[in-house]
Design brief:
CATH class of the largest domain in chain A: Alpha Beta
Strand order of the largest sheet of chain A: 6-9-10-15-14-13-12-11
Shape of chain A: elongated
Family (chains A, B): Belongs to the class-II aminoacyl-tRNA synthetase family.
Pfam family, one (chains A, B): tRNA_anti-codon
Oligomer: homodimer
Largest interface: A-B, 124 and 124 residues
GO cellular component, one term (chains A, B): mitochondrion
Distance between the termini of chain A: 39 Å
Strand content of chain A: 15-25%
Number of helices of chain A: 12
CATH architecture of the largest domain in chain A: 2-Layer Sandwich
Number of strands of chain A: 15
Radius of gyration of chain A: 27 Å
Structural class of chain A: alpha+beta
CATH superfamily of the largest domain in chain A: Bira Bifunctional Protein, Domain 2
GO biological process, one term (chains A, B): asparaginyl-tRNA aminoacylation
Keywords (chains A, B): Aminoacyl-tRNA synthetase, ATP-binding, Ligase, Nucleotide-binding, Protein biosynthesis
Chain lengths: 471, 471
């Protein structure tokens, strides 16, 4: 029997309703319809049986009620089914609606003895090993939906601010600005005999995977003024922390600083935008699922931060605060001119200010060549945004616009100024350059912070890190 | 003087208005404000001078009027400026509004003798060589805005249909399903001496750049039911056609086929979605710029196709039509069991049906292992969408859900069935699989079709192809 879809706007919807739509939209309680999904759990009683059916569209799925208990024959966890019946308001406390089932079709069986996604709690490590199936678990599917919603939030925010979404290249001749952490493409074994002029490099010269879209975004900003991207980036780092992936996604934006607000202007836009993403998702069902087992203090710190102005301090003041800190012993002594360690950032954001913290104007020798030198001759116009329990979420800067200063820094870093090296980057200042600024935000870290997730490996569908690449 | 922004909603906008906003939104004609941009052209007369100011936010920019002509001293094409003045309705025919300038600040000069973006028409090849500056030209900036708008259209469409946006991995152990066109990462020269167990492969085994997100999307669809992505894909193809890039972006979607509509259902969603993107952008200023010099027949074919149902025919019928074709001499003889050549696709869509054409049910031996075998034992449940003047825009299929048939095809193709080879892909059928379908669309080809652009190299910000990778 063909299910009735007349309760939905047929013009708008090409596909039958998902469970999310059945839970949230107007339904006709007398219409018979079919719902597809997989069995999350099943409870058989004498006179009535219950199953939770999920299609991954909604954190709770929908409760299926079987007044004819024989209909549940052959149903086990993980089985894919097509259930036909009527949607009713649920008399139960735990769910709003349920499906009163009068027909069952098994689409794909699932042997309960060997199904890797058992009902009991499964360790994070076990689920990583079963990466192809982990999207069926509550937490991973909630994270995936959260990512999707955040992607929409990001695009809405930047569109409203007059930015254009762009796709910067993944393969580039740039080698991570000399930082030495980039992946390189393998050469091809043999040039084709019929094309002797081709080298074994596909592009004629070495190709690297991008470590950041920034330089390319600056080229596009010279034409479009406000651009952003959410792009994969790659770092061949061996460090095995809970904040690093070999392949990750970065939100990067670059724009003309019309009113010359400098670093403070970037911080303003970043704070405004992150609060906007947070307010789009906090309180939603997916975030509720993810926060279920997280300590209350983390959640409270996050929620409180959304209604207050975030702290800002210079690197110099941060060093002073660390040096004056009582009752805390740092492994690394905080001293002007040295990198802030994770322990320092953690203390500053979690203890000292108790919320997100912008640290600005780092010494130039700690930062890349493209950041604008401040008048003091020592620091550069930049910031890191540190958030509690995650650490660095965003980094950004005013870009050096003075071509002579830029080129001298590039020479010092050993970056070639030829047209096919980094000369094009200096060119952007030579032909009608304009003061501009930008930032990069690790998208997995945003997901980690808003979702209360400890490890960025659980913030991306299929994580890759040193020695680990499944699927 | 600080410009007045009070005419805009200050809460919503973090940044000063772009030219697009000044052209489209309510403005106070008595407010003085500042606009940043670069000079596109300048015309000096005795009593009044005019310049076109662009910030890339709007196809036409804005006309700046200088009643005090001395204000234009030092202004040349490409110079970045901050102009202060009042927005007025224009008495001219060609623009709606203009900026009556009373203050000029030069932000970045531009030597007109050496500026690569001269006013006269510049060849496509020349602009490719000056890729870092080409976003300042009318056509490239219109293409970039079109891409951004299409990205929004795509996300709106799939969100409405209950799909979640996902980020599938770029690095993968899969080697293009044996097709041999994938890029591989280089090994690292030396394993670290202090970590003797690490091989020179960063991930412990070879890593390739993805050629398609499909297999990974299927894993995510097994949990979320409806997923899509717009992801970079890579093909190490040496062919130098106007339809191929080594790095390109592909829109791929995968979903549970709830009502078992099969190939016809996929075609329905694809047609509906592409018409929806087209109706979002056709008639807009950016598309107008891009279509300026394109033959009228191409535009008419495109616009006409949006209000009619697109043709569908089987591969078998397509072969018959080609064999029966009068007054046309094909280089390759059309014969059942052979690949359709570009010349065949071109004739079928441009001459035979005069619009987009779905060709369905190709012989299985021409298509990959994952497509579902039809009952006839020869063909598979798949389609290609051919559009006039571009060729193949979309390809998709019903996925083989019968694990025994799938595994036997995989063995035949020499694909390993171990857990860390392609075994995980077969697993998706083993544990509660469900009939599902999907497609992939080359995003640059969509831009080419809707923008009337001949070569996909002009459909992406920074194209890469064999022997060519600038920036």
């Amino acid at each position: 029997m063909k299910p009735s879809l007349s309760i939905f706007r047929e013009v708008l919807y090409r596909l039958p309703p998902t469970i999310a739509r059945l839970q949230h939209e107007a339904v006709n309680p007398d219409a018979t319809l079919s719902v597809n999904g997989f069995i999350k759990s099943i409870r058989r009683q004498k006179r009535v049986s219950f199953a939770v059916l999920s299609d991954g569209s909604h954190a709770q799925g929908i409760q299926a009620v079987f007044l004819d208990t024989s209909l549940t024959d052959g149903l086990t966890n993980g089985t894919s089914v097509r259930l036909t019946g009527k949607i009713k308001d649920s008399p139960g406390q735990k769910q709003d609606r349920e499906l009163l089932v009068d027909g069952v079709e098994i689409l794909g069986g699932c042997d309960p003895e060997i199904y890797p996604i058992q009902k009991q709690a499964l360790s994070t490590e076990y689920l990583r090993e079963n990466m192809h199936l982990r999207a069926r678990t509550d937490n991973v599917s909630a994270m995936l939906r959260l990512r999707s919603r955040l992607m929409h939030s990001v695009m809405n925010y930047f569109n409203t601010q007059g930015f254009y979404f762009t796709h910067t290249p993944i393969l580039t001749g740039n080698d991570a600005e000399g930082a030495g952490e980039s992946f390189r493409l393998a050469q091809f074994a043999d040039p084709q005999p019929d094309r002797p002029n081709e080298t074994s490099e596909f592009f004629g010269h070495p190709a690297h995977l991008t470590v950041s879209s920034q330089l390319h975004l600056e080229a596009l900003a010279s034409g479009l003024s406000r651009v952003y991207t959410l792009s994969p980036c790659f770092r061949a780092e061996r460090s095995q922390t809970n904040r690093h992936l070999a392949e990750f996604w970065m939100l990067e934006a670059e724009w003309m600083d019309v009113n010359r607000e400098g670093v403070q202007g970037i911080c303003g836009l970043v704070e405004d935008s992150v609060k906007s993403y947070a307010s789009d998702v906090i309180g939603g069902q997916d975030v509720e699922v993810l926060w279920k087992d997280v300590e209350e203090v983390r959640r409270k710190t996050l929620v409180d931060s959304l209604s207050k102005t975030w702290a800002r301090m210079t690197y110099g003041d941060a060093i002073k605060a660390l040096q004056d800190a009582k009752n805390v012993k740092f492994e690394f002594e905080p001293r002007w001119g040295r990198t802030l360690q994770s322990e320092h950032e953690k203390w500053l954001s979690e203890t000292f200010v108790g919320g997100p913290l912008f640290i600005t104007d780092y010494p130039g020798n700690l930062k890349p060549f493209y950041m604008r030198a401040n008048e003091d001759g020592e620091t550069v116009g930049c910031f890191d945004l540190i958030v509690p329990y995650v650490g660095e979420l965003v980094g950004g800067s005013v870009r050096e616009g003075r071509v002579d200063i830029l080129e001298s820094k590039m020479r010092k870093d050993g970056l070639g100024l030829g047209k096919h090296e980094y000369g094009w980057y200096a060119d952007l200042r030579r032909y009608g350059g304009s003061p501009h600024v930008g930032f990069g935000m690790g998208f997995e870290r945003l997901v980690a912070w808003l979702g209360g997730i400890d490890n960025v490996r659980e913030c991306v569908p299929m994580p890759r890190w040193a020695s680990k690449m499944l699927l």
